[in-house]
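Notes, p. 3: input format for complexes.
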Amino acid sequence: MKDHVLIFDTTLRDGEQALPASLSVGQKIRIARQLAQLKVDVIEAGFPISSPGDFISVETIAKEIRGPIICGLARAVEKDILSCAAALRRAKRPRIHTFLGTSTIHREKKLRRSQDEILAMVAHSVKLARSKCGDVEFSAEDAGRTERDFLCKVVETAIGNGARTVNIPDTVGYTTPEIFASIIDDLMNRVPNIDKAVISVHCHNDLGLATSNSITAVKHGARQVECTINGIGERAGNAALEEVVMIMNVRRDYLGVTCGVETTEIMRTSKLVRDVCSMPVQANKAVVGSNAFAHSSGIHQDGVLKFKSTYEIMTPQSVGLLENKMNLTSRSGSHMVKTRLASLGYDDKSIDLPAFHAKFKALADKKGTVYDDDLVVLMEADTVEEMADTYRLTYLNVTGGMGIIPTATVRIASDGKSQQEAASGDGVVDATTRAIDRVVGLAIKVKDYHLDAVSEGREALGRVKIVAVAPEGTFTGVGTSTDIVEASAKAYMDVVNKICRMRKYAPKLRGKRARASL
Ligand code: KIV
Ligand code: ZN
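Output follows (518 residues plus 3-methyl-2-oxobutanoic acid):
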């Protein structure tokens, strides 16, 4: 299929190389299963010779995962290729991927081999791999920095000896889109047997060009792209699968190619890789970042409410999200506020929108993000000052550690008085919330607890977001501190104060609350 691009996922091999510790077999299987759901064409499951654990992972994935081709990596040496073939024994659709450095730097400094010796190694390793497996891929490592004439000879030799796929890696992320395009053009025009193989590309992101280089190569005839979920991989990572795939989808008009990936599985896969690999995804990451479908500016929110495509080039549903996110902040205009109120059940014509919007802005200036629970209470408060906190945490002391029962002591001020309580719990955060409960006497159940670092290093600020349920509704509390227990306590106190406000306004809210879904 001339216009079909194969998606080769190397999250479990190149991606795993970037992690501080190897993934277990179980973790790799979980990711491989999801990659099969995502319908990638090839899963590079690992590098069997690199460790006994990796051998078992490749072997298990080869045995259990059906659908995609299962591929193993091998240097262009006999023992690697034999080990790779053994690990892939039970695969329904196995592929051996063998590679060798071809640039001057790799030949002279790392391998200490002449060009002729390299060509002989290519021929020998591909032939050996083909004797063990019908599907062989050869990679000219550091192709991006390899002399053009020599690269053409390497590719011709690999294809001549049976490679069905020749991969052109920009191993160190050094090329730029135009230069990479000219490499692909040269191979297309100068390698006599090029029509016998698929040209693949494998771009690293050292200069932030991995996706650009990959897509440019596709425009120039590459028909396999090697990439990873969330772009994880050696150093600055690899081309991100979600970016490559969504560019091919969104810009089909320009690229004219298709791929078989089930895009609605992208978000689920991204989250799984993030969690299993403990590699957070930056908020503004294309396609899968938490802000990728969030609108904050008033002008943008107004535009999206009128017609989604004004500021959305792809739908959140196309990558597996339920809907976009409209952040209510001081930048939100009255159109946005009115729409959110309506979604909460407040669509009476009697609302004085300009006055409410002014009140909303005052609150947003104080708080940053305004959540739905704030909005409901604000509907009933005459002024923002009325929404002052009932309780204030003035002291927190926790003890915890191995072999110590976690305990917390809190002092909370309210109405000119101060009250102190202590509690033990299942960890210091739990002990803290129990001690707070003793003072405030509310029935709160934490439904979701999320901790993020908002700055880097040992002194990083931790931001805790708690979603809690109480008889009064569901509430979101946020707290920030360099101490994560303190950040948790602040977030919990935020919830407590929101519940108090909700109670204060309950008589007015009754009736309306039946319609308001928080
Ligand atoms: O970056 C690279 O060159 C590689 C090869 C093994 C394909 O990962
Ligand atoms: Zn790589």
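Residues 77 and 125 are 6 Å apart (CA to CA).
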